[in-house]
Write the structure tokens for this entry.
Amino acid sequence: MTVPLVAGNWKMNTTVAEGIALARSVRELVGSPRDVEVAVLPPFTHLWALRDELAGSAIQLGAQDVFWELAGAYTGEVSAATLVEVCGWALVGHSERRHLLGESDEAVGRKFACASATGLRVIVAVGETEEDRDAGATFSVVDRQLDAAFAPLIAQPDPDGFVIAYEPVWAIGTGRTATPEQAQEVCAHIKQHLRERANTSPRALYGGSVTAANAAELFAERDIDGALVGGASLRAEEFSAIVRAAAGGMPEA
Ligand code: PEP
């Protein structure tokens, strides 16, 4: 059985005190769910405090980004070597980094390779813009992003060591969720592409305006193995309802 992952990307939200309170609420509401992995990705500044807050709980911790070198003159960047001391996951390739900060496909690949090499588990985000979709280029854009992400990896990645998050850019923070059919189609395509190109079968998450109201129908799709949740992850009740939907509603693999 595929164990789904529900990861909350808090983005640049909450003070440290607010983050501790949110983590506490998530911890209490989520409890110890069976057969689902849960992670929260707070700002870097919160990681050590949240490690203590979440110790002994089922909630895992991750970072929203990571650099591609382990140390050196890279002002402002954060090394996988230090992240691995405090958390288990790192997100790379989020569309806000690709589009607002100009992060290239190649940079995402270097980050993935470096983070994997340190033992961090990695969420690799890919997804097309609205223009790409309208031009019928969804699969080719996702394939290009995947191929670039995998190019610098030295060793065959362990499929438990990473997940792909399919996040159509037009659905992120817009309230415009992809339909379950659209999300399923691309998640299935991602798995097929990685089987053929990289001989690996990771989980595929969907991300883009996931809420408690639409999570169950997304999770009912065969190739959607969880969610990367932005806005709704800042509301503990709603995030825990999404986790419950994942725990209860996965189809047989
Ligand atoms: C995200 O930031 O990864 C995301 C999916 O955001 P939202 O859920 O707010 O659309």
User: Anything to note?
Assistant: The mean pLDDT is 95. The chain is about 40% helix and 15% strand. Residues 9, 167, 172-173, 207-210, 228-232 surround phosphoenolpyruvate (CB under 6 Å). The first helix runs from residue 16 to 30.
